[in-house]
Amino acid sequence: MRQIEALAGYLFIAPWIIGFLIFTIGPLIASLYFSLTAWDLIGSPTFVGPANYVAMFEDRFFWQSLQVTALYSLGRVPLGIIFGLLVALLLNQEVRGIGFWRVIYYLPVVLPTVAISLLWLWIYNPEYGVLNWFLWTFFGIEGPAWLQSETLVLPSLIVMAVWTMLGRYMIIYLSGLQSIANEMYEAANIDGARSWQKFFAITLPMLTPIIFFNLVIGLIDSFKIFTQAYIMTDGGPRFSSLFYVYYLYQHAFERFNMGYASALAWVFFAIIMVFTLLIFRSSRLWVYYEGVDQERS
């Protein structure tokens, strides 16, 4: 019976295992091989060893794409975490119609990225965009060309990204807020604690696992930005929005330099892995797990 049950289990998970080997492990190994070759997607790959990696570190656009992606992540991730928490605190109140507002804030998360990009492309339009119209109508200020400015293009995309991802952060924070025991707040009220004291002594420490999760997912997600650059800016102006994944795409599917693109992908994987491991190692210092920390104490 045990052998039959084990065989049945393997048969049930076989489709997933086969799909994982064919569509994940297979391409992963293939890309590692292609990163050591020169291949134009038409002829046969030519083995060149680590030449692609050496050329990468001499490529100024590689460093430019890294810098742009890092600056974007430094703006998007902290702002998303902070504003997501603030919105979650507001939407955690027991008031009439709170479910409607939760749906409204979460709605951008389920919208297609292409549709959101086109929407914000209209908002930022310097001639007939709603943002410049608002500035001129109510403040008499002539708005700039947001996406055509080297200085403003990244902040503009960061604002758009925070608006888009706010609902995702909010819904996760809400689940954390509603799992905090009311007895803690009742005990704090008896001790005469004020609202800000309860927030920093109870709410924030109990939410550190949620913050940790949002930090890891937000960092990985911000590094993978592609659609906005592809649709809205084309990497400009003057490469000020040349994100890493968009630069990788250009080499792979516009210049048909798949070997170099594969090398870029593996360096990208290594960068994300290093930052993720650093966050995990640092979590021991600031993330509070109730059950684990109580056992340690």
State Rg: 24 Å
User: What is the CATH architecture term of the largest domain?
Assistant: Orthogonal Bundle
What is the CATH domain class of the largest domain?
Mainly Alpha
Distance between the termini: 45 Å
Q: What is the number of domains?
A: 2
The helix tally amounts to 13
Main sheet makeup? 2 strands, antiparallel
- Helical fraction equals over 70%
Count of β-strands: 2
Report on the architecture of this protein.
This protein has 297 residues and is mainly alpha-helical. The chain folds into two domains: 1-34; 51-296, MetI-like (MetI-like fold, Orthogonal Bundle), CATH 1.10.3720.10. Helix content is 74%, strand content 1%. It contains 13 helices and two strands. It has helices at residues 2-34, 51-56, 60-90, 98-110, 113-123, 130-139, 153-177, 182-190, 195-223, 227-233, 244-254, 258-286, 290-296, and strands at residues 37-38, 46-47. Strands 1-2 form a two-stranded antiparallel ribbon. A hairpin with a 7-residue loop joins strand 1 and strand 2. Helix 3 packs antiparallel against helix 9 (195-223). The chain is globular and about 75 Å long.
Task: Name a few traits of the molecule.
297 residues; mainly alpha; MetI-like fold; two-stranded antiparallel sheet; 13 helices
Sequence-ordered SSE layout with sheet pairings:
Layout: H1 2-34, E1 37-38, E2 46-47, H2 51-56, H3 60-90, H4 98-110, H5 113-123, H6 130-139, H7 153-177, H8 182-190, H9 195-223, H10 227-233, H11 244-254, H12 258-286, H13 290-296
Antiparallel strand pairs: 1-2
Helix pairs in contact: 1-12, 3-7, 3-9, 3-11, 4-7, 5-10, 7-9, 9-12, 11-12
